[in-house]
Amino acid sequence: MAAHNELGKWGEDLATAFLEQKGYTIVERDWKSGRRDIDIIAIDGNTVVFVEVKTRKNSVFGEPEEAIDFHKLQNLQQAIDHYVKYKHIRQPIRFDIVSIVGTIGQTPDIRHIQDVTLI
């Protein structure tokens, strides 16, 4: 597995554990809608939460969440719409970002940004 893929998987594993510690129930990981994907789908109370995880070794080129550009947001919106229709979701929904800076073997900086506006 390429180093960036290992870092991404590590980040998603960390984000999953972080959300579970906060009381979220993880429903799906890496859910696919064609070529689009949703990293984590969780339940927080009565709300279905769609989570994008961004992991970087450092912040030299900006914070991880800054890599979520307009095109990525469009793809996420389409994937979320598909999931909601496919699963007949009737509860409130929300989009969050978990931003992780660090590398495998060190203590990462984890930030949870809740209720991000898509488009």
Main sheet characteristics? 5 strands, mixed
What are the segments in which pLDDT stays under 50 over at least 5 consecutive residues?
none
Radius of gyration: 14 Å
Structural class: alpha+beta
Count of individual helical segments: 2
Broad shape: globular
How widely separated are the two ends? 33 Å
N to C succession of SSEs: HEEEHEE
Total strand count, please? Answer: 5
The helix fraction, in percent, is: 25-40%
The whole-number mean of residue pLDDT values reads: 94
Numbering strands along the chain, what is their spatial order in the largest sheet?
A: 1-2-3-4-5
Characterise the protein shown here.
The structure is a single chain. This protein has 119 residues and is an alpha+beta fold. It is 30% helix and 35% strand. It is built from two helices and five strands. It has helices at 3-21, 70-86, and strands at 25-33, 36-44, 47-56, 93-101, 109-113. A five-stranded mixed β-sheet has the order 1-2-3-4-5. A hairpin with a 2-residue loop joins β1 (25-33) and β2. The longest helix is centred in the first third of the chain and has 19 residues, at 3-21. 22% of the residues are buried. The model has no long low-confidence stretch (mean pLDDT 94).
List keywords for this structure.
119 residues, alpha+beta, five-stranded mixed sheet, 35% strand, globular
Record the SSE blueprint:
Elements: H1 3-21, E1 25-33, E2 36-44, E3 47-56, H2 70-86, E4 93-101, E5 109-113
Parallel strand pairs: 3-4
Antiparallel strand pairs: 1-2, 2-3, 4-5
